[in-house]
Amino acid sequence: MTGTPGRVFISHLSAVAVFDPGGDQVGRLRDVVVAMRTAGQPPRVLGLVVEVTTRRRIFLPMTRVTSVETGEVITTGLVNLRRFEQRPTETLVLAEMLDRRVTLTETGELVTVLDVAMSAGRGRDWFISKLFVQKQKPGGGSALRRRRGATLTVDWHAVTGFERPEDQQGAANLLATFEQLRPADLANVLHNLSPKRRAEVASALDDDRLADVLEELPEDDQVEILGQLREERAADVLEAMDPDDAADLISELPEETAERLLDLMEPDEAEDVRRLLTYSDDTAGGMMTTEPIVVEPDATIAEVLAMVRNPDLSPALAGQVYVTRPPTETPTGKYLGVVHFQRLLRDPPFTLVGAVVDTDLQPLRPDTPLAEVAGFLAAYNLVAAPVVDEDDHLLGAVTVDDVLDHLLPQDWREGSVHGDARVAAPTAVRSRVHGT
Q1: Residue 312: which CATH number?
Q2: Of 50, 76, 49, 82, which is closest to residue 63 (Cα–Cα)?
């Protein structure tokens, strides 16, 4: 595999083996799935098409890829074996981008794409960064006899020709326009679309993006959108949501539908949601997330800060770390205390968190009512609070944003405060929304 560290030429990935963390082969890579973007921005890599041993081709999100190295790809081990189905807004690199004729922006020359490179960005994000192209050497004769010209590597923005037709007014164009919106703002736009166009856009969003948007929508919109997805995909989207938000949404579904979706989810993800469904939604147990940052007391501050840097964590969850005996998956071993983010910044990186843990803050019980949870956060100026059972096992954490969701009126997402979010959207977005 060629390229500088963090950059991979995709043709070199064709047919490489894909392994789980234990070294067992999952399958072989057959293609890379990307999403085109507007304004010359490089396409984002969504995931990989992997052919498993049954010759079925499945989709492996980049969020479940831990390493891309010479001759192999390593995954987290969580692989969904449902058959891959390409969506209208997705492009396959090997199948659709290689051998494509594009134009060099600077000179206007036509070139042929021989290879495409993807580069690692922040977190686990990857983007298309470079194109390896070949010029057509001038001269007569048939195409078969015509000599090839020079090859060169150029940046993505140095060529044109991959764009979709400008007159295409489908969900793909809307998605490209909406890409820079925050989930809350995109949720507001979706809410104001016609039901048909809302379904088109929701269907074209990738699972993680749709999950983020669903968490910001009113419950009736959530139920409507989820009900229009294939059940297999609906289960994938629920897995991508925060467990507490997924539980809230599932609780609004008919019992038979909810049970089918839970059965289709990964067992570990479904177990967290089922546990949350046992609590009333206006209690600490019903509002908590089951995925806070949890470490053992012998972890170093340097190790914990690396976990806090995870860009997928909300600011509230990244604000403090919970220290327990093993296991650290909820429900954990005995809860020992909490370490606040500011304390992590004040002490040397080699310090063990067990030496700086705050044991004075009393945790909440899962049956603590909403009013008491809100008062607890306000009294101690907290953005999150631990929730433990009667045996002092950490069950999860309640964050201030979830408390606010329950304290505000049910229709607050449709009120003037949230509605003003569309002012921040580009003019093109507003005109297209009102035109649908």
Answers
A1: 3.10.580.10
A2: 76
Spatial separation of the C-alpha atoms in residues 416 and 279, rounded to whole Å: 32
Structure tokens belonging to residue 152: 């060169």
pLDDT (tens digit per residue) in 281-327: 899 999 999 999 999 999 999 999 999 998 878 899 999 999 999 99
Q: What is the CATH number of the domain that holds 210?
A: 1.25.60.10
Residue 30 identity (one-letter amino acid):
R
DSSP character string of 49-77: EEEETTS-EEEEEGGGEEEEETTEEEE-S
Please check whether residue 394 lies inside any domain of the structure: yes
Which pTM value belongs to this model? 0.64
Q: Give the chain's domain count.
A: 3
The answer to whether 434 and 427 are in contact (CB under 8 A) is no
User: How many CB atoms are located within 10 Å of the residue 90 CB?
Assistant: 20
Domain range for residue 263? 183-282
Residue 201 to residue 210: CA distance in whole angstroms: 9
Q: Are residues 62 and 111 in the same domain?
A: yes
